[in-house]
Amino acid sequence: MTTLDSVNKASKPGQPAIAPVESSNDIPVAKRKQTQKKQPKWLKPTLYILGGVGLGAIVVLSSVLLLMQASKTSPTATPSEPETPAEQSSPAESVDTPDVPAVENVLGHLPYEAAPESELQSLSANAQIRLRKAAAQKFNEMSASARASGISLVPLSGFRTVEEQNHLFFGVKAQRNQNASQRAEVSAPPGYSEHHTGYAMDIGDGNVPSVNLSQGFEQTAAFQWLEKNAARYGFELSFPPDNIQGVSYEPWHWRFVGDIQSLETFYRAHNLPTSSTVKSDEQL
Predict the structure, then answer these.
(1) Which one is predicted more confidently, 1 or 142?
(2) Which residues neighbour 139 within 8 Å (Cβ) at sequence distance 6 or greater?
C-alpha cells in the first residue's frame, strides 16, 4: 500500500506534496461535507401538521365505528306511549286510597237519588207503602216468616219522594220553630234520605205500637227477631250505635242490601268522612 511518506518521497523536489485522501473514498473530507444537501426549513412543520391530521382522522374514524357498533347492539328506539294510570307514579299517601266518588256529607246525611216509579212495588201489609221490587218481595217474605213465629212486623214508612221529604224537613221545622241542625237530628234534608232509594223502611212492632220510631223499639220482640233473622232476607240495620256516618242510633230503620245495586248505593258511605255531630236520619 502506498503511504504518505512514500508519496512525498516520490515527488520531485520543488513540487507541493499531494493532499491526503481517505483510503475508502476518493473524495476529500472537505469536499464531501460540501456535497451533503440541507433540508428545507418548511419540511419539519409540514410533517408535524400531516402527522397531526392523520392522527385526528384515525380518532374520528374510530369513534364512528364504535357508534355504528353500538347502534347495532341496542334495540330500535320507538316513540314512548303514555303511561296507563296503573303505571304512573303517585304520592305514597294515596296508594291505598280507594276510588270513591266525592259525596257531600250534610249534617250527618248523605245524598241519594229518588228511585224511578217504574221500579217501585206496594207492600202486601200496606199498599200505600212502596219499596223497590226486590226489597218489597223480600220484606213480604220476612213479614210472613215473622208472623208464623207470633211476631208482628209493621211497615211504617218506605219510599219517599224529594217533595215529601221537603215537607218533613222544612214544613215541620217551621212548625216546631227548629233550626236546621235541630231538625236534622230527627229528619234528613230533602235529597239526603235513604228513603229516596226505595230500599229503606221503618219497621214497628204491631203488638207494642207505643214505642214505634223510638229507641224503645229495641226492647220489643219484633226488634229482637229482626236482629236474628233480617240478614236472611237481605236487610240490615241502617244506623247502629256508633255508625260510620255519625247518625244517631235508630233501631227501627232498616235497609235492603240484598242485590248489587242496593249494596253499592249504601256502602259508598263507608269510605267517606263523617260529621262529628250525631244526627238522626228519619224520625217523624
Answers:
(1) 142
(2) 123, 131, 155, 201, 233, 235, 256
